[in-house]
Every structure is written in structure tokens, then in C-alpha cells.
Amino acid sequence: MTGIADRLQELGITLPAPPPPAGLYVPALQSGDMLYISGQVPLQDGKVIETGKCGDNITVERGAELARHCTLNALAIAREHLGSLDRIEQVVRVGGYVASAPGFGQQPQVINGASKLLLDVFGDAGQHARAAVGVAELPLNAPVELEFIFRVTQ
Amino acid sequence: MTGIADRLQELGITLPAPPPPAGLYVPALQSGDMLYISGQVPLQDGKVIETGKCGDNITVERGAELARHCTLNALAIAREHLGSLDRIEQVVRVGGYVASAPGFGQQPQVINGASKLLLDVFGDAGQHARAAVGVAELPLNAPVELEFIFRVTQ
Amino acid sequence: MTGIADRLQELGITLPAPPPPAGLYVPALQSGDMLYISGQVPLQDGKVIETGKCGDNITVERGAELARHCTLNALAIAREHLGSLDRIEQVVRVGGYVASAPGFGQQPQVINGASKLLLDVFGDAGQHARAAVGVAELPLNAPVELEFIFRVTQ
User: Fold this and answer.
1) Has residue C1 got a pLDDT over 60?
2) CATH number assigned to the domain comprising residue A136
3) For residue B124, which residues of chain C lie inside 8 Å, CB to CB?
4) Which of B23, B36, B138 lies closest to A93 in CB terms?
5) Residue B85: helix, strand or coil by DSSP?
6) Testing the interface with C: which of A24, A70, A104, A107 to mutate, by most C Cβ within 10 A?
7) Which residue of B33, B92, B134 is in closest CB contact with C135?
């Protein structure tokens, strides 16, 4: 059995440095076997990669890329917390918040950018429940924010 | 003690077919004794019953009916996952997202359409914590979306 | 070791009466060792202290004060449910919803009003995962809503 580090390499993925929290919270909090990852916006080198709203200046495809990037940040945080991503037994829930222009209803397609990455990396263990909604505004005017619950080995 | 199937019959409720997910996620994910149901919009036969916003073209009463419909979909999903709704020990949390026109502040009354059904069906086991918020837009331009956590027998 | 009641006194905090729920849900639902607190708006004596939106009539500083007030309500609910706040082992997750005017991106600074109180009261046990988003509207036109998960002794 190959581990997740090998799988990331196969996929050509190098995780970023885990971004620091944007407020008075921790990036990850474990309670029993549940690991809660705080809301991630598409930060890179301390800045949001791109600001705006889906259905306005951000296309569905671009939104999905940014959702993927949020997920890479979350995996970097989980790896730092757990020591190894092999300790993730199951992705449990993904919460997806999409900053949405009036009339935009393709939040699921945007959040699929996160879900696809989780399935690619974890296979069956990457399957998850999900809620995707369209919000008015997000921190730092980000177009998308994602939070996660993982079940982990203790 | 009568079961939930009898209770549904007493209430004149026939559950719909469980709607397929709208993206790369599963309708229900169980972790230990917690069953997470993915966000449900008021789908019927593959289409949202009615689009729009509460406080605009959707009245509070209509919004509550649609919230009830989302909950029927969630129960259909739970039944398919669990085999029987008798395995639900407790509704734990309901997350309610209401697509809201400017100035609309009656999200609780809309989400009561979901909560009332849960109480009618499960009695004390239907009591739950809840968050209700007013969002900008929802998938497929639905007026309401609901997600659920149930505690179940393993 | 002093308890949380002493700590509240040191901080000059008197908890309010726990506000009643605004709909057909319970203020707190415990499942195993997890206590879910329902969404709290800044109610005082049955009324929202102030209505409006952050980035419009509500400044970041005022929003943070209102977020703190939501948290006091949540602690009052938790104390009533648990008998004593000493039974809180860990704050696990904070969900923060900020009613946001167009272009407002400082949701984290608003929700810090809740996070700071939790850290002041509980110390390390007050550290938590968090998601903060900007929503279109909130119940009773409140500027902010907060929900919580606490891990408690059984």
C-alpha cells in the first residue's frame, strides 16, 4: 500500500506552506478522532490569489481552481497537525461558501474543485458529505471559502 | 412501540426517491454514530420545485413548505443509507440556509418548516440544535437549503 | 485551580439570562461529549441590540462587540444545560455569520470578538477551529450570528 505522500507525488502536487490563521483561532482543532479544519480562503504567500465573485469576474472554472487551492491549504494544515496525511481515515464533511453575484446558482460546480482533489488524493476515503451555498461576501474579498471535517487515527 | 414507518403513514407522508447528489459528494456520510446528510435543495423529479428568494417572490409560508420538502429528501436519503429510519436515535443539528431578499429577517420561520417535520416524525428524538442564516444565492437558484446531522445506532 | 465562575468574576462578566430559541429548536443539544449550541444573534431582553450590516451602519469594532454578546448568550445557554461551565473541556468549532454590506471583507475581525472572549474565559481550552463568512441577511436583521460546538465532560 502506497501512502498519501506517494499519491501526491504521482499527482504532481506539492503542498504549500500551511497558511497562518486570519484571526484568533487555530488552523486545526482535533477532538477525539475528528479533525476540524478552519475556513480556508485561496491564500498564497499571504495574499488572496484573486478577489471577486463567481458569476461576475470569476468564472465557474476559475472558482473551481480556487476551491482546489483552498483544499491544498487545508491539507497542508492537516499534515502539519497530524504529522502525516496517512492518518486521515475519512473525509467527513466539506462546507463550501461561494461569494456569488446575483443570479449565480452553480455553487456545486465551484466546490467540485475541492471535492475532486479529495477524491483524487484519498480515493474512497475522500468521499464526503457536503453543503455548498452562495454567500454575500467573504474574508479579504475572496471568491470562495472551504472548511473540512476529517476523521483521523488517534 | 410503533416505528417511524408507521409514524410516517399516520402523518400521511410518503417519502420521495432519494435525490442524487448535485456534485462530487455523497448524499450521506456516516462516521461512527454520526450521520451527515449533504445540503438538500427542494428537488422533485430532478428539478427545483420553485426558484427565487424569500422576501421577494417566495413567501415565508411557501419557504417553510420548501424547507419541509428538503427535509423529506434528507429522510429519504437517511432511510436508504440506514435501511430504516428507526436507527435514528437523535436529530443533532440542522443547518438552514435561506436565499434572502434585502431586508428579509424571517429565516427562523422558514426553517421551522424543516424543524416541525422532524418533531412530528421523531418526537423528542427530533429535537435539535439549529443555525438559520440568509444567504445571497443557492445552487440551482433554490430558495432554501438544509443540511443535517443525525445520531444513529451503529 | 480556579473554576470558570471565578474566571468570569475576574473578567467582570455577568452572564445574561439564556435567551429562548427563535423557532422550533432547542438552544443546546448534547450528543455524547459534543454540545451543539444553536445560532445566537445579539439578543438582549428579547430584542436584537442593534440591526444592520457590517460595512454599512455597523463598524468592525461594533460588530465585534455584538459577536461577543452572542457568545455570552451561548455561554449562558451552555451553563444552563451543563450546570457548570467547568464541564467544558474544549471549544471545538465556532461558526460566524456576518451580515455584510457589498465589499465588506473584515468578517474575521468581527468574529474575533467571539474568539477573544472564549480565549479570555477558557484559556487553552478556548482555542477553536472557526469559519467566518459574510451573509446577505440574518434573523431579525441582526448584524452577526454565532454557533458553537463544545466538547464537554459527560
Assistant:
1) no
2) 3.30.1330.40
3) none
4) B36
5) helix
6) A24
7) B134
CB < 8 Å to B142, chain A: 105
Q: Residue B127 sits in which domain range?
A: 4-152
pLDDT given at position C23: 97
pLDDT at B74: 98
Q: What are phi and psi of C48, to 5 degrees?
A: -65, 130
Does residue A35 lie in a domain region?
yes
CA–CA dist A74, B97 (Å, integer): 24
Chain B residue numbers with beta carbons less than 8 Å from the beta carbon of C29 are 90, 92-93, 127-129
Name the pLDDT band for C2 (thresholds 50, 70, 90): confident
- Examine the pLDDT at B1 and tell me if it is beyond 60: no
Neighbours of chain A (3+ CB pairs under 8 A): B, C
Residues 6+ apart with CB under 8 A from C10: none
In a domain, A25, yes or no: no
For B135, the closest of C24, C36, C135 (CB atoms) is C135
Task: Summarize pLDDT for A69-106 with one digit per residue, the tens.
Answer: 999 999 999 999 999 999 999 999 999 999 999 999 99
Q: Between β-strands B47-48 and A144-152, what pairing exists: parallel, antiparallel or unpaired? A: unpaired
**Where residue C63 falls among pLDDT bands split at 50, 70, 90?**
very high
Q: A69 lies in a domain?
A: yes
Q: Which three cell numbers stand for residue A2?
A: 502506497
Number of independent structural domains in chain B: 1
Tell me if A138 is assigned to some domain. Answer: yes
Chain C positions touching A142 (Cβ under 8 A) are 105
Report the alpha-carbon distance of residue A72 to residue A78 in Å, rounded: 10
Q: Rounded mean pLDDT of B56-77?
A: 98
- CA distances from residue A145 to A62, B32, C111 in whole angstroms, order as listed: 14, 27, 16
Tell me the per-residue pLDDT of B17-54, one tens digit each, with 9 for 90 and over. 999 999 999 999 999 999 999 999 999 999 999 999 99
